[in-house]
Amino acid sequence: MSGKGRYGEFGGQYVPEVLMHALEELETEYMLSKNDKRFQEELRWYHVNYGGRETPLYFARRLTEMCGGAKIYLKREDLCHGGAHKFNNVMGQALLAKRMGKTRLIAETGAGQHGTATAMAAAVLGMECEIYMGAEDVKRQRMNVFRMRLMGAKVNEVQIGSRTLKDAINEAFRDWVASVENTFYLFGTAAGPHPYPMIVRDLQSVIGKEIRAQLKEQEGRLPDLLVACVGGGSNAIGTFHPFLKDKTVRMLGAEAAGCGIATGKHSATLSAGTIGVFQGSKSYLLQDKDGMINEAHSIAAGLDYPGVGPEHSFLKDVRRAEYIGVTDEQALEAFVTLSRLEGIIPALESSHAVYAAMQRAREMRKDEIVVITISGRGDKDLETVHGLGLIR
Amino acid sequence: MSEIRNAFKKARSEGRCALVVYLTAGYPDRESSLEYMLSCVKAGADVLEIGVPFTDPLADGPVIQATSAAALKNGMRPGNVLDLVKELRRSTKVPVVLMGYYNPIFQIGEAEFVKRAAESGVDGLIVADLSLEESKDLMKHCRKRQVDLIQLAAPTSGDERMRELAEATSGYLYLVSRLGTTGQSKEMSDDVELLIKRAKTAAGDMPVAVGFGISSPSHVKRLVEFGADGVIIGSSILKKVVEGDGPEKVASFVRGLREACK
Fold first, then answer.
1. CATH number at residue B230
2. pTM for this one?
């Protein structure tokens, strides 16, 4: 075990030798860009003028009243350009790719939000773009596939394995080992080999930093509880990270318990997984006793992943953050509740966080504050939910 | 000196490069995969690389992905692969290298896995997704049990890196011939000549075996000209198995490859 890119025992660089040079180059260039004022100004320019940052921190009065406990605020990443927090990471990495002289972006996508954001960035920066997406996800997220193609990206349907996010990542890696000279792999979540978990976390930390400043302005203090959904964990780590040193701020990650953890059909990696090495890093994962990776399940394509970012594994083990499972059914309930009470349709992924936060808020005092990161908007899920016949 | 090094030495003394054959354990089924392995050895394979099936083989191309998935469906788990090697050992002394991914080894435990592998008659290990940086502990366990831990070098490995890899490897240095996953290719790029030169310079006495995309006797001949100490061939042999060729037919293809090693 090496010391590079470690969060306790988690993380590392478990990749074929052919990629080691590219990862090292990526790390070096990223560190340079971090201290490059012009680069940071350019990123900031895109955040403001193209992405619509900062996103609002909205006091959800009716949701708060219904729960009858802590004050609930929503961090509106669903209002980010493209409809999700994915923009934050993508814009940063795409500008980095450009700085490195790469001409082609590749990315994996689950729900299609990361793929959409990558297609956006490729279009606005004039780069070539190819997206890998599991065939199963292509089926349930048709509109996002159309969006990507509309913006000029090539979308490859991945027909292997469980035909979801993990298989799309395998295929993207296979593309990258062959194309590493001119291609930048724009990884979508805070997982994978070092330096990706660090880069994605840093770029998503804009969420937590804004929450901090906005809540200070509105309430004059820090939140008591932060809640975010966790698939790979990028919006959650971006929400949590700027508060890690604030001991009074508690953190709750909502994982997808799918049909229920007992059924085995879920994506609750931290709640029900074991430690292993998968797709570049050591972390909790869903696997059998032989180390074969299990198929995950969630109604939310973006959470349907048997791994999780290494820093979350670390935060779980040192008990800095807590992680719980929210079932498909519970997420759907929150999806409807937030739509009805606030006129905000959250993504099915974010609905997991909404459900978990509602439960906690009920048990908290009225002078306490909960912030939920609404990682994306639910328009992409309308077909799925409509198909279930929940709304007449 | 390890059995693997001896095999390379023997090939060199016969004035040819060594032929390393890769087959997926348990494909198309357990018994047949044993038969294919033995017929490849009879046809002249100097070293056998046996693929340990994994659910997410991200360094492998379509052929090995498919054979791995099928073998897993047949129940071929890491423990079964070790049993398979034990059985193979009753019929042949050919050096055996297991090639696979890290997580199954991590689950069994590095020390325990290497111990069991050595007891089963395994001579070497290749772990496709274990970088040099992450392989220090496994290397220690391998050294203790006299199992060779074979490192891969790639076209993207610079000269300095190539030297580090050559120093860390044992058995042979596995040189990845081109950017990409395992699998066949029609042509062999001229860059390979320079790549082999770089690897040989870095490796000194350590044999350099070239793999990925080697599909035909003519490819082998070119690699021999370029100075490779060994050639590693997997997907193009496995493809014949996938297409239904029996052990005899596959053996005759392997004989052709072996002929080209001269």
1. 3.20.20.70
2. 0.96
